[in-house]
Amino acid sequence: MAKAQGLPLSFIVLAAISVLVLILIVAFTVGGAGSFFKQITIVGGGGKGEELSAVQTACTANCQKLQADPTLTIEKFQGSDYCKKTSAVDLNKDGKIDRNETGLHCWDDKINIDCTVEIAEETITGKNCTTKST
Hints:
The chain is mainly α. It is 45% helix and 4% strand.
């Protein structure tokens, strides 16, 4: 009786993994899978957001850039990352981003990083992020 010759099991497993990886690469390249996984994240609770300490560190760094800018104007201040960038932070640590934990600015009470700069002998703070310049 002749012994049957076949492919080794390790070769079959390696081929299956390779095909799966190739399919995932094509799916992400085309873009369909990226939006699919994004929808899963939104339905599943929106993720955990950013850590409060990381957001505060970024806000402090953005403020320091503004304070070091010798050509700073109120328009540049209001258009800066300090004023414009928003973050989602899981403040109550429940693993979900609630409605009141999104769209937070550096100058919001929940993040609480105030930035004070001098522009043309006028003191500007985070409260000036939302006011129109005169």
